[in-house]
Write a structure and sequence with these properties.
Layout (H helix, E strand, L loop, with lengths): L1 H5 L1 H18 L5 H21 L14 H34 L4 H22 L5 H18 L1 H16 L7 E4 L2 E8 L3 E5 L5 E5 H6 L2 E3 L7 E9 L5 H13 L11 E7 L4 E9 L5 H18 L13 H11 L8 H9 L2 E5 L4 E3 L7 E7 L2 E6 L4 E7 L4 E2 L1 H6 L5 E5 L3 E7 H10 L1 H23 L10 H6 L2
Antiparallel strand pairs: 1-2, 1-5, 2-3, 3-4, 6-8, 7-8, 9-16, 10-15, 11-14, 11-16, 12-13, 12-15
Helix pairs in contact: 2-3, 3-4, 4-5, 5-7, 9-10, 11-12, 14-15
Amino acid sequence: MSFIQNYPFVASVIVLLIDLLSWQLLPFKYRIYKVAARLVLFLAYSAVIVSAGMSPLDAAPWPEDGPRHLAAIALSILWWLLAARTLTGVLGILLTRRIGHSGRLLQEVMGAVIFLIAAVAAAGYVLQLPVQGLLATSGAMAIIVGLALQSTLSDVFSGIVLNTTKPYQVDDVVSIDGVEGKVVDIDWRATHLLTGTGSTAVVPNSVAAKAKIVNLSRPSDCFGISVTIMVSPNIRPRRVLDALERALQGSSALLPSPKPRAMVKEASPTTIEYSITGSIRSLDSKIDVRNLLFDLAYRHLEAAGIAWQSDISTDNSMSRARALLEDVKIFKSVNAEEKNHLAQNLVPHEYAADQVILEAGEVSDSLLVIATGVVSATVSDGNRFIEAGRMGPTEVMGEQSILADTPSNARFTALTSCVVYRLEKSVVRSAMEHQAEITRALKKLQAVRQHGSESLLLQRPTAVRKAGFLGWLKTR
């Protein structure tokens, strides 16, 4: 204490230097300790200047000693600024724990207000200035500045509202007034979105506060996805909805809950607009799943004899068989004459839902081509069958039997009522002799499916052995 009383200015400077060093040296992850150290050093600084005979609530006590008087004024003003900085840090910790890091804008605004109050208090208490006149003048200036910056202030206060109500946070994927993107920053004026094209969209906070906001990141484990399809009004809606329901069942990427649905959205004299909706687990797969749904919808509509925005229907079974071969990938290289020959040998078979089309271990005598419906492919892990994927129109089964008379590794079961065309093994092998591309396509398909089955079985979680007395006995 005697040192403080004899050298008050040196002691004050030492405390300020310690405060500055502690703030700079402590890492940001120890922010609570940094603020706690700043609070302790502020109290120590207050004790130093009070012990030296100075008070931040009064004018400097040594008016006859010029240098000492100026130093006291400086230390008293520093006390007010240090008080504002300490209070801002404490409020920042409290706000962060309550509303998270998204409240950064609110913290900055509150900090600016606190520093403004500290500056006015220092002018009134330390410098003994007429604060009333200053406040009156500043009030008039504030009105003028407020009118000039009306839109900017609207953005600032709208940003505060958005940070406190938290309709979205940084890293959320949102749609604001029709602009969709990932939130990368929320500052004083605007919300910055990173769009799907890689560009940055800047939405003013005042616009965001009034606009319709759709947060695609909440809930965090379920994200909605929808696809819109236009079909001619000449086609009965029930036929279209049934085909779209089969398309939804054909995608294993959609979550079972909430249940995927197909519905009529709007109708006009020229088209009927249908919407299929579902949920996915990750936004990263949104584009891929949307593309898949479009492809599945097209295939199942075509399989039902429905063309988009047209009333064309293919009722003739032979023409349907011929049209089906056009979309089967393994027959892409086959010429039209050979496809006509293959189509004449296609024999349709109908399967009810849950009926097994090809059993695991069975050697098929035909190549099976799905015409309509959804088929589930499951593989055995030794104890039970696990779904490896779902198949729809134009996809084939039984390629292993065609290539080498080997049994099927998977069980193929109809999830919905299906129509499957059978093409005799001898007919396919005869076509393979003339078209080597068919053999290569079948081998590639077999390799892809084999790899997918092995990958699925490798991902199977290992059984956890239960602990307890019986588990202890088994290890003895």
